[in-house]
Amino acid sequence: MVEQPTLLANTLIIIGEGFWVFSIAAQLLKVRRTRNTKGLAPVTQTLNTAGTVAWATYFAINQLWFPFSTNVTMFFLGAATLAYTLSDKKKFARGVVAILIIAPATSFMLVKYPAAGGWIGMIYNLLAGLPWLIRVIRRKKVSGISERGMFF
Known about the structure:
single chain, mainly alpha, 6 helices, 0% strand, globular
């Protein structure tokens, strides 16, 4: 039997998922408006998008439909951001290679270990975010990265 979260846990899930959606939406809007993909790595975008698939799997298994639907939304927003990133000729090859490696690996793990979807999503999001965070702190530059996206 699936145990549903408490009211407090549901509230925190809604707030957290809302921040994720606003973050990726702000990034997509900035990329769409400026066509500036500097600072956005295709590998990072691919990991984040694959992470949303893993999280959606976890939430679907646990019948948590609001976070499931927000992760599906984030998948499409992330895929659109990835598409804009791949429009940069210099990033295209790295992006295709990242997709060719990460997508099958994610599919295999989620088919073989569906209950580990949350862990897979967390690891992917961590791997995607750490180099970006280190670069922003070290260089003190956020070129191409949405300030609103960072806030959320």
